[in-house]
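ligand=cytidine-5'-monophosphate
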Amino acid sequence: MTPPRYFALIPAAGIGARMEADCPKQYVPLAGKPMLRHVLDTFAASQTITHTFAVVGAEDGYIGGILAAAPHLAGRMTVLHNGGATRHQSVLNGLHAMREQVDDGDWVLVHDAARPGLTAALIDKLVQSLCDDAVGGLLAMPIVDTLKRGGTDHRVQATVPRDGLWAAQTPQMFRYGLLRRALEHSAQVTDEAGAIEALGLQPKLVEGSPRNFKVTLPHDVALAELYLKGIE
Ligand code: C5P
């Protein structure tokens, strides 16, 4: 039996309206490169990853510029122009399109284009933690703040115990066959782990890093650049 391989799948078909930028969030420039390019460079440089697939929208007019500026990505990645209306649908469309090149037992690391702080070391930590796991899992951060549930009037309704609570990050890493089945059968989920959980399975939590945060709001750009410039 051939050992399983590791593929990356990057959903990058969103708009990121909360960023209020002139272009889709994943193309906002950060430390001299579009956000998505940081992620593609990290996966392309990883010895662990066999190949990367990026899912963009059918009308995407930006990815061509990234590829033209980064010839080293050729051969290390494939662009799929079949993004969907939701992240869930974009990931599922990507899984369908990569079918010919991937076996059911191969691992897929799904990673948000909006998390440019991912490093090769974090990829390897996730892979080493899960390569012998029956289910798979995800990078996540233990919650350190006290949590409040607020009402529409912004008044505290309750303090939520934070014991055992984690904030999910990506990559989320599952075997191709299981992940595809889970996403095909789940109703709308906001991450891959949610679809696996709906099958009654328990993904493993692997501690990530603050630098792997999701760039969402305009002020996140400065923080992301601090992290990115720190390693360049
Ligand atoms: O908007 P948000 O930051 O939650 O999106 C997370 C990731 O999912 C981003 O990389 C975004 O481009 C992607 N996405 C997608 N297709 C959508 C919506 C979001 O690929 N329809």
